[in-house]
């Protein structure tokens, strides 16, 4: 409950006296005022006793004074102004951090939350970009391809050669340009016929939008002319 504003004229050092007299005139106990204002009794006592050392630093003390003066119906604007002069006169100005200043500039109250909000937006955007990049890279990345046989280049006298290997299940495999069937587990095999001399076997695997993975083998077919008709 707030009372009608009433101006009391005292000298500049009697802020606490004005508060105390106004409260006593209205017959309000200090504890009752503290409960209604949700301010500690000790802080109200400190205000009435002009004991500013027991008040919290920064803007809180002035907020308590303003609310208490309004509650008692006093000219809170003049009291707050007087309170500021009392607490700044005779002091050497020192650098203060954002949270130690007597009055926190309104721009900081707006800028600090905005910085936090913008930082969160940037972080979320970066996470999204990284995830999208991961997905795009996975789509275009060449599939795994391993040729289990032949394991390397070699020579043979057999005209027929079985090529076998392993890749990803959704890949299309080609051996020398011919499509090879791939099983559900990604394995494949195919028999090819070798030409006399050096044969180059090209095995490639590719998903729908990906790059191709390619493995080559060089096989020397040593045919025996004496066996030819």
Question: Can you characterise this structure?
Answer:
By secondary structure, this protein is of the alpha+beta class. The protein has three domains: 15-88, lambda repressor-like DNA-binding domains (434 Repressor (Amino-terminal Domain)), CATH 1.10.260.40; 105-140; 145-224, Immunoglobulin-like, CATH 2.60.40.10. The protein has helices at 15-25, 30-37, 41-48, 59-72, 76-88, 106-140, and strands spanning 145-149, 154-156, 160-167, 172-175, 178-180, 187-193, 197-206, 213-221. The strands form two sheets. The protein has a five-stranded mixed sheet, with no helix packed on it. A three-stranded antiparallel sheet has the order 1-3-6, with no helix packed on it. A hairpin with a 2-residue loop joins β4 (172-175) and β5. α4 (59-72) packs antiparallel against α5. It is rod-shaped, with a radius of gyration of 44 Å. The model is unreliable at 2-13 and 90-102 (pLDDT under 50).
Topology as a string of helices (H) and strands (E) = HHHHHHEEEEEEEE
Average pLDDT level: 80
**Count of helical stretches:** 6
The CATH architecture of the largest domain can be named as Sandwich
CATH superfamily of the largest domain: Immunoglobulins
Give the low-pLDDT segments.
2-13, 90-102
Counted up, domains total 3
């Amino acid at each position: 409950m707030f009372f009608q504003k009433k101006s009391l004229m005292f000298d500049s050092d009697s802020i606490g006296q004005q508060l105390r007299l106004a409260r006593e005139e209205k017959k309000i106990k200090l504890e009752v005022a503290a409960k209604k204002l949700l301010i500690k009794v000790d802080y109200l006592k400190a205000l009435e006793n002009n004991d500013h050392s027991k008040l919290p630093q920064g803007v809180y003390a002035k907020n308590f004074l303003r609310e208490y003066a309004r509650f008692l119906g006093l000219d809170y604007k003049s009291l707050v102004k007087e309170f500021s002069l009392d607490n700044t006169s005779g002091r050497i100005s020192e650098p203060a951090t954002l949270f130690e200043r007597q009055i926190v500039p309104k721009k900081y109250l707006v800028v600090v939350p905005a910085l936090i909000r913008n930082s969160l937006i940037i972080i979320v955007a970066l996470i999204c970009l990284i995830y999208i990049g991961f997905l795009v890279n996975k789509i275009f990345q060449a599939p795994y391809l391993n040729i289990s046989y032949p394991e390397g280049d070699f020579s043979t006298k057999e005209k027929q050669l079985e090529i076998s290997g392993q890749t990803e299940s959704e890949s299309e495999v080609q051996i020398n340009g011919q499509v090879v069937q791939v099983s559900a587990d990604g394995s494949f095999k195919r028999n090819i016929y070798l030409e006399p001399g050096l044969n180059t076997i090209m095995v490639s695997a590719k998903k729908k939008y990906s790059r191709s993975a390619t493995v080559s083998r060089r096989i020397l077919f040593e045919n025996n002319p004496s066996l030819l008709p």
